[in-house]
Amino acid sequence: MPAFESLVFTRLSPEESGRRAAAFAAHMQARRTTRHFSTEPVPRAWIEDAIRAAGSAPSGANQQPWTFVAVSDAALKERIREVAEAEERRFYAEVITDEWREALAPLGTDAVKTHLTDAPWLVVLFRQAFGVNPDGSHRTHYYTQESCGIAAGLFIAAVHTMGLVTLTHTPSPMGFLREVLERPANEKPFLLMPVGYPAADAQVPSITRKPLDAITVWR
Ligand code: IYR
User: Which CATH number does the domain housing residue 180 bear?
Assistant: First the structure.
């Protein structure tokens, strides 16, 4: 039997909705991804709040199929960087196709991942591909990719809103994160996000975002 409760909802004036719509769009348009992080510490409470925001994401059957591993330990960050760079060196030397190399060229990415040790926090989002019951049997999880993608988006918005930067890093392959961070077999690494202040001389690639009419169809 489903249990329900009344929706807590605050009706805004049309003026206020319009203001917030424009303000939020402008706020998010000002977000940039940088590879250059400051080593300045960031309070754990802020990371907790970013994870709280991410954990509010809608998910398949409300199964909330995510685990956030927040790493500040220097030795662990060093280990993650070591293995990620080894994987990435192989990726950039052997796995990448010419077409892929060309697509990445304007972004200036390479196998050197200084952000993995510079950033005060590495947050690794694990996708729970299935659930595990107390008796050890497996429970199907639904739409885990979509659910974790939404949670990641909220995390990124939260980090930007608190005045910090993050970088969506997908080491390829990233199975090693499960071993290094000692996560169970049902948890698949989904996204690695360094979080911190940008370095004083942080750079970003000169990119543009597609205009509204290039990403929208009205019917
Ligand atoms: N995983 C590699 C390569 C990479 C791929 C894409 I698509 C990017 O947008 C950025 C990087 C890396 O992290 O360098």
Answer: 3.40.109.10
Domain of residue 162, residue span: 36-203
Record the tokens describing residue 145, joined without a space: 């990719």
> What 8-state DSSP symbol labels residue 198?
B
Instruction: Evaluate: CB of 87 within 6 angstroms of ligand 1.
Output: no
Can you tell me which atom of ligand 1 is nearest the CA of 103? 7
What single-letter amino acid sits at 195?
V
| 170 ligand 1 Cβ < 6 A | yes
Rounded to two decimals, the pTM is: 0.96
Model confidence pLDDT, tens digit, residues 197-212: 999 999 999 999 999 9
In a domain, 4, yes or no: no
Contact 160, 145 (CB under 8 A): no
* CB-CB contact of 150 with 56 (8 Å): no
Alpha helices, DSSP H, located in 4-59: 14-29, 44-54
